[in-house]
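Appendix C reproduces, verbatim, an entry submitted by the partner laboratory led by Prof. M.T., so that reviewers can inspect both the input and the predicted structure.
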Amino acid sequence: MVKKKRIIGIGIGILSILLVIDIIASYYFYNLAIERNVKDFLQGNADLEVSAEAMDVFIEGDWREWVDNQDFEHWEMTSYDGLELKGYYLPAKEPTNKTVVLAHGYLGNARDMGLYGQYYYEELGYNIFTADMRGHGNSGGDYIGFGWHDRLDYIDWMDKIIEKTGDDTEIVMHGVSMGAATVLMASGEKGLQPNVKAVIADSPYTSVYDMFDYQLERMFHLPAFPVLPSTSVVTKMKAGYSLSEASALDQVKKAEVPILYIHGNADTFVPTKMTEELLENTKSEAEMITFDGAGHGEAFVIQEDRYVSKLNEFLEKHIKD
């Protein structure tokens, strides 16, 4: 009996230690990936290495000077949960009812989407709107929403755009990486206005849980259980959403708006199979194009002609002249 109690006591002790370790790990990964702070854990990540050609465009492309030379209107909005958010609107050179709404990636900001905005503005004649997502740039927020709360922010931003530009406004949502997941999450919301005519999702993930599952094994060689479920609990407590509910996959199953999926076949940061799964589960009309040799978010800069050719084909199909 004494021996049995001792064994039980040892077992309880081990379980207690494991529980404490799991809790510590959960807060560690929340702080690492979700809490707003300086993040250097992605530096040196081979999955995010880009070609010299792409690096030249990202870092020194003429689009940066173009952004600096534009007279963007600075917009402000208080989110449904009280955060002060910042947006930026650039009316087209000639009056138009067409507006592109751009969504940036993880650790980025609104300015980054000038790479795409320049094309929409100069070549297609669109109005441009982009925003610093919560936890990024000049917007408030002490956590990163990975698109989940941002989807509602973007719906509110688009309501403001329609108020400014008129009821006949036609909107294209175009996001990259986390921004792509954001526009997909918005695509299935009941509050999405019929003015949104097309969604462009470049390098999206299926859900935050799936993305963390993939990266946990790839970067840290750890299994999802039990760290991710407990990290999800911490995220729910501190940021108001769980990793599993933040799902682009669930949202596109309800989508009515046409969606163009874009992904690089050489993307090892967000695997192409995630976009394939999204395509297979999309309720609305959807297409997918892949780019050989393109890493994460690289397709536009290394194969721009093919990228814009498909983009234009898709827009001509769904946007009125």
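The mean pLDDT is 91. Additional entries are available on request from the coordinating office.
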